[in-house]
């Protein structure tokens, strides 16, 4: 099943973002050239939310979910590896 949510129209604040991400076995966060990897079950919730939330207080775009893996943010090298 594919679901697309337009981040310009639908805002996802931290509480809702955590409900989406909390079952993620791998949450990869890209910001510029930096790429961080988290596991929602073992890593600090506040640290994860700090990295996935944008300055407006909403879940950063783009955010992709495939199974229980998430990719948040953009980094061309990460996308090439992820989709390659």
- Compute the separation of the termini in Å: 21 Å
Strand adjacency order, main sheet:
2-1-4-3
The SS-based structural class is: alpha+beta
Order of helices and strands: HEEHEEH
Protein architecture, described:
By secondary structure, the protein is of the alpha+beta class. It has one domain. The chain is built from three helices and four strands, in the order αββαββα. The mean pLDDT is 91.
Task: Describe the structure in brief.
It is built from 3 helices and 4 strands. It is of the alpha+beta class.
List its salient traits.
four-stranded mixed beta sheet, 84 residues, 4 strands, 3 helices, globular, alpha+beta, 23% strand, 29% helix
How are the secondary structure elements laid out?
Layout lengths: L13 H8 L4 E6 L2 E5 L6 H8 L10 E4 L2 E4 L3 H8 L1
Parallel strand pairs: 1-4
Antiparallel strand pairs: 1-2, 3-4
């Amino acid at each position: 099943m594919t679901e697309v949510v337009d981040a310009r129209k639908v805002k996802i604040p931290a509480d809702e973002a955590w409900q989406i991400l909390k079952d993620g076995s791998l949450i990869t966060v890209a910001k510029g050239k930096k790429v961080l990897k988290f596991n929602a079950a073992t890593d600090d919730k506040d640290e994860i939310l700090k990295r996935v939330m944008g300055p407006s207080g909403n879940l950063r775009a783009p955010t992709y979910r495939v199974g229980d893996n998430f990719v948040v943010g953009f980094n061309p090298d990460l996308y090439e590896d992820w989709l390659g």
